């Protein structure tokens, strides 16, 4: 899931613009509508999962295993350039929406499995830390596979446009990368099916959310991450003349994130999740601005290491806080029972919706700035827009998220109180 998500997050935007060569407005519609559709399907899938009956392999596992082959096919055709030109927008919109639907059928039950592992808060936090570490490694693998295969996208010739031969070969390498990632998805699903035994536990919860602050924090976090991911390759290619290094910079960010997740797990246990969220998310602010104003290779790698440190916190903390929200609601509504999938599907809904807005808005900004599809160099307004999307916009998102985090009600004292109350209830 993370391997495929990483490849689409970093490279789908530039693929639609420069390889599929659809209009920037159409590309923004594909990215926004696809993400929005994925967001809409999250609570729908969550509802149907709650109505699913228990089978020999569990209630959640059939959804993940059943959707995987179809998801792999839709993912492959998402990176295929059809022979026709006029209807390419419909092609990519259709397959991206189909891919988002199928990945929802996988991700919602997968993330909800956390609630089936244990009723103890510390064990859930530990499981979440392990899961996020492996997910960051998956993101690293996805960026590495896609980045290394398509790193040399094209060579510029007359007037800064790629040669037709190079352009044709780039279509093929994107398909090769899609095939490799699709095969890896199948292997990982088989490993999960053989290695995870779902238990029909008593961790059933209500469908409504009490602490919506976590959703709003997640919106800002996801808007920020998607904004940086989708525009980072374009930024390195056209704004700071680091086109030959962007894949290594991306890998550095993700490696730093993977290594620092254990630190943040220790930090949240020592100082609390709210404090950890403040420190971790704030850390990235000066470094995103630094890369914009000091665009050289050494600074880029310094920023990459520091950014990975903050990315790890922004990935781990919200997922670690979600089970606390679930427990808090259960105590406030002891007679209400539902299913875990609803909580996780609503959380995924808000994050995907934020990602869709981020992708759509950023691509529209590039269109208004005069993005030249397929060109090796972009006009000055495009370069300036990319710097704003990488520098100023993330700072605004972080500031908004931190303001909301101030009123987040579940402190460490509340968590301890809830833990004791849940032990008595069980």
UniProtKB/TrEMBL annotation:
Q: Name one GO molecular function term.
A: symporter activity
What is the predominant subcellular site recorded for this chain?
membrane
Instruction: Respond yes or no to whether keyword Ribonucleoprotein is given for this record.
Output: no
Q: Which InterPro entries match?
A: MFS_2, MFS_trans_sf
Its keywords, alphabetically, are: Cell membrane, Membrane, Transmembrane, Transmembrane helix, Transport
- Subcellular location(s) of the protein: Cell membrane
Q: SUPFAM superfamilies annotated for this entry?
A: MFS general substrate transporter
Q: Which GO terms describe its biological process?
A: carbohydrate transport
What is the membrane topology listed in the Swiss-Prot or TrEMBL record?
A: Multi-pass membrane protein
GO cellular component terms, alphabetically, are:
plasma membrane
Signal peptide positions on this chain: none
Q: Which residues cross the membrane?
A: 60-78, 90-113, 174-196, 216-240, 246-268, 275-294, 300-320, 341-369, 389-410
The family note in this entry says: Belongs to the major facilitator superfamily.
Q: By what name is this protein known?
A: Major facilitator superfamily domain-containing protein 2B-like
Gene label: mfsd2b
């Amino acid at each position: 899931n993370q391997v495929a998500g990483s490849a689409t997050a970093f490279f789908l935007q530039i693929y639609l613009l420069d390889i599929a060569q659809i209009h920037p407005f159409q590309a923004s519609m594909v990215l926004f509508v696809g993400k929005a559709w994925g967001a809409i399907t999250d609570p729908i899938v969550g509802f149907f999962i709650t109505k699913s009956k228990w089978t020999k392999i569990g209630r959640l596992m059939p959804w993940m295993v059943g959707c995987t082959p179809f998801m792999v096919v839709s993912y492959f055709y998402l990176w295929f350039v059809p022979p026709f030109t006029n209807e390419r927008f419909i092609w990519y919109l259709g397959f991206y929406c189909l891919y988002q639907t199928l990945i929802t059928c996988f991700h919602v039950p997968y993330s909800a499995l956390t609630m089936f592992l244990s009723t103890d808060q510390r064990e859930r936090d530990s499981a979440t830390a392990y899961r996020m570490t492996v997910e960051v490694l998956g993101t690293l693998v996805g960026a590495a596979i896609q980045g290394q295969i398509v790193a040399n996208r094209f060579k510029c010739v007359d007037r800064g446009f790629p040669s037709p031969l190079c352009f044709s070969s780039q279509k093929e390498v994107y398909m090769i990368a899609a095939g490799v990632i699709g095969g890896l998805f199948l292997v990982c699903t088989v490993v999960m099916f053989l290695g995870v035994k779902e238990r029909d536990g008593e961790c059933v919860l209500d469908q409504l959310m009490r602490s919506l602050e976590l959703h709003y924090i997640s919106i800002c976090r996801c808007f920020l991450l998607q904004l940086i991911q989708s525009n980072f390759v374009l930024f390195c290619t056209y704004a700071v003349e680091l086109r030959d290094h962007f894949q290594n910079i991306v890998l550095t960010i993700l490696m730093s994130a993977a290594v620092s997740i254990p630190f943040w797990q220790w930090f949240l246990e020592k100082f609390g999740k709210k404090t950890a969220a403040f420190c971790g998310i704030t850390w990235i602010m000066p470094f995103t601005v630094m890369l914009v104003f000091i665009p050289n290779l050494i600074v880029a790698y310094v920023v990459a290491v520091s950014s990975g440190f903050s990315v790890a916190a922004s990935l781990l903390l919200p997922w670690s806080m979600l089970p606390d929200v679930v427990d808090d609601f259960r105590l406030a509504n002891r007679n209400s029972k539902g299913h875990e999938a609803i909580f996780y599907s609503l959380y995924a809904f808000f994050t995907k919706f934020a990602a869709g807005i981020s992708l759509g808005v950023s691509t529209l900004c590039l269109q208004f700035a005069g993005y030249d599809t397929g060109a090796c160099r972009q006009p000055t307004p495009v370069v300036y827009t990319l710097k704003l999307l990488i520098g100023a916009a993330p700072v605004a998102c972080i500031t908004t998220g931190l303001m909301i985090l101030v009123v987040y009600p579940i402190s460490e004292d509340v968590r301890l109180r809830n833990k004791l109350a849940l032990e008595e209830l069980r």
